[in-house]
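Researcher: Batch entry, complex prediction.
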Amino acid sequence: MIRAFGWGEVLFIVWALRWTLALSAIAFIGGGICGLAVALARTSTSRALRLVTTGFIRLFQGTPLLMQLFLVYFGMSIFGLGIDPWAAAAVALSLHAAAFLAEIWRGCIEAIPPGQNEAATALGLTWGSRMRYVILPQAMKIAVAPTVGFLVQLVKGTSLAAIIGFTELTRSGQIISNATFQPFLVFSLVAGLYFVICWPLSFLASRLERRLARATAR
Amino acid sequence: MSAADDRSEQPAGSAAPLIAVRMQGVSKWFGSFQALNKIDLTVRRGEKIVVCGPSGSGKSTLIRCINQLEPIQAGSIVVDDIDLGAGGKNVQRVRREVGMVFQSFNLFPHMTVMDNCILAPMKVRNAPKDEAIATARKYLARVHIPEQADKYPAQLSGGQQQRVAIARALCMNPKIMLFDEPTSALDPEMVQEVLDTMIDLAEEGMTMVCVTHEMGFARRVADRVVFMDHGEIVEVAPPEEFFERPSHERARLFLGQIQRTHKPVPE
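Model: Structure tokens for the complex:
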């Protein structure tokens, strides 16, 4: 029997948006925490730390997100952690976000003139204090716009979690499409919902970028 | 180097060492380029040393080694009786006692002048905030800009920024001050206000090592002038001797070039 594409179906899809948002938030927070650690390691004076974290970043930037999802999903079941699309999607997207955010933030940290770190060092501040009070507050200002820009990529990236069976926006679209045989209509709605989330973010990112450009033009 | 430079014995009962900095056989390479070649230099407590020389001669590298902004590959540096090469927390201890002023000021642009001044005393010396603020006010008054405490560095002139940088370093109560071309990035009309601050500091008895081409300052303040070239100390002499009768050809050449481009600073 073919279901009609009515309000119930629309609501089902719109309601699935919360899982897309939740997954995005988890990946962004998890990726942010790991990404900061990786960015700090990547800019440290320890060669070993730099090599390991560079390898991590290259690996995740050089493979498709879908493969990362597959590997974490099937990897977890091989290592006896069961088959859990939620956990697999959260872990894979967090690692993915960590690699990209680390690389963005590394650039921001390195953009701070070396004299800042030297002056802080000469004052006797430890590495932790130098980062916390001198380098990171300045790097954060530069980082805001590209970070919001990456968040847009991350929100869209969560759609791939549908393939490992995580029911978010795209997956709920597939379910409704299979029941109603109205793929064009259904996926137009799904795409529209992504746009409603991502467009304001993109807009915000470019505004922040312009504001930063004005602030640093002096 | 004279025998007097090598004295290391201290008078009985004196807590502060007579020797502020002792560099022995210090060598430093950047890759295959040798920036410092077997440097021997002793700075006595209260002494003012001016280091000069052509660009690339290693003078900045020399003073950056004193607080280990640059690690050295050979030789030893002892600052205020603390051996930098002995590991442990020694580097940290030395940096607490040594203030540094940079060519490009390097104030923290996201902090007010006051916050620039109290950060290190609070985080490194664990000074209470009100005490750190009182110290900062004292030193900002001494460099003649007490009214700028709540401004951001970008709101100040170059000369004012450099005086804040000096005050910031003084807030740590350093025993030794290093100056790395402190007036080279300044507009000409602001050079004197910074030099005056440095002269005040010298007259209070601060131990100072200054990399500068301000020969008027060197004549007035320096106990000895160190002339460097190609990573070596070529000549060490009191200023009048160095400027009137430099004993090395390279020093004569350098002084000739300096005097063509730099007008002597009026007293």
